[in-house]
């Protein structure tokens, strides 16, 4: 699992943001625009509409994480999404859900994939989950936990690989993320982290092959919607 190291809420300090007069005293116009883009939700009356229980991946079950374990955002408008980070829960799905609902845990991922292939979404993709232990990576990635332990290869089931691959392929298509190991990474590869997941038993070759297959299938379906509809009626 990730942690919230370095994820204290942004402090404006000397770069005061003056909203009432539509003026931003932040030193330069570039910095002003940057602050406004990242602090949009602080402005009165501009909270982005959200549908309670809505999920970003069709078929996922929504269970809300504690608001202490993520930061509200407007991604990809304020922070572009360019990575998927693969985690392992080091426990059961139920224990991960409980931890992510605990405000004292200070960490949570967007999704949990169970050994049975069921997917639980706990944070919207538009929000910044505290999962990677690196603020920049948190702001620009989607975190996916997988039920199990890094030293138990039997925990990484076929159903889990298949469901996670569909999820990751969908995320990559949504945000234009290249399907490669530079952009789909393990928690262990995040700079500054002391985590080792997903560990030596995670089959990256198998997983990436499945992600590419799902990505290609979705691309082909999008190009041939009529043919796809016929197949669904068979």
Automatic annotation (TrEMBL):
<dbReference type="GO" id="GO:0009253">
    <property type="term" value="P:peptidoglycan catabolic process"/>
</dbReference>
<dbReference type="GO" id="GO:0008745">
    <property type="term" value="F:N-acetylmuramoyl-L-alanine amidase activity"/>
</dbReference>
<dbReference type="GO" id="GO:0071555">
    <property type="term" value="P:cell wall organization"/>
</dbReference>
<keyword id="KW-0378">Hydrolase</keyword>
<protein>
    <recommendedName>
        <fullName>N-acetylmuramoyl-L-alanine amidase</fullName>
        <ecNumber>3.5.1.28</ecNumber>
    </recommendedName>
</protein>
<dbReference type="Pfam" id="PF01510">
    <property type="entry name" value="Amidase_2"/>
</dbReference>
<keyword id="KW-0961">Cell wall biogenesis/degradation</keyword>
<dbReference type="InterPro" id="IPR051206">
    <property type="entry name" value="NAMLAA_amidase_2"/>
</dbReference>
<feature type="domain" description="N-acetylmuramoyl-L-alanine amidase">
    <location>
        <begin position="70"/>
        <end position="199"/>
    </location>
</feature>
<dbReference type="InterPro" id="IPR036505">
    <property type="entry name" value="Amidase/PGRP_sf"/>
</dbReference>
<dbReference type="GO" id="GO:0009254">
    <property type="term" value="P:peptidoglycan turnover"/>
</dbReference>
<dbReference type="InterPro" id="IPR002502">
    <property type="entry name" value="Amidase_domain"/>
</dbReference>
């Amino acid at each position: 699992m990730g942690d919230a190291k370095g994820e204290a809420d942004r402090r404006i300090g000397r770069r005061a943001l003056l909203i009432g007069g539509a003026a931003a005293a932040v030193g330069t116009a570039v910095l002003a625009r940057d602050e406004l883009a990242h602090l949009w939700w602080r402005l009165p009356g501009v909270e982005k509409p959200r549908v309670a229980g809505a999920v970003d991946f069709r078929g996922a079950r929504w269970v809300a994480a504690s608001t202490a374990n993520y930061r509200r955002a407007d991604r990809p408008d304020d922070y572009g999404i360019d990575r998927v980070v693969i985690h392992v829960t080091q426990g059961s799905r139920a224990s991960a859900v409980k931890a992510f609902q605990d405000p004292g845990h200070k960490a949570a991922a967007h999704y949990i994939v169970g050994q049975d292939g069921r997917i639980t979404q706990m944070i919207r993709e538009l929000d910044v989950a505290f999962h990677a232990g690196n603020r920049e990576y948190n702001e620009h990635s989607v975190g996916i936990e997988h039920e199990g332990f890094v030293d138990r290869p039997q925990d990484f089931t076929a159903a889990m690989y298949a469901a996670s691959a569909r999820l990751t392929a969908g995320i990559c298509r949504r945000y234009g993320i290249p399907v490669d190991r530079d952009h789909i990474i393990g928690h262990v590869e995040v700079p500054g982290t002391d985590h080792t997941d997903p560990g030596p038993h995670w089959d990256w070759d198998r997983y990436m092959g499945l992600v590419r297959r799902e990505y290609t299938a979705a691309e082909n379906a999008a190009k041939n919607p009529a043919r796809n509809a016929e197949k669904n009626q068979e």
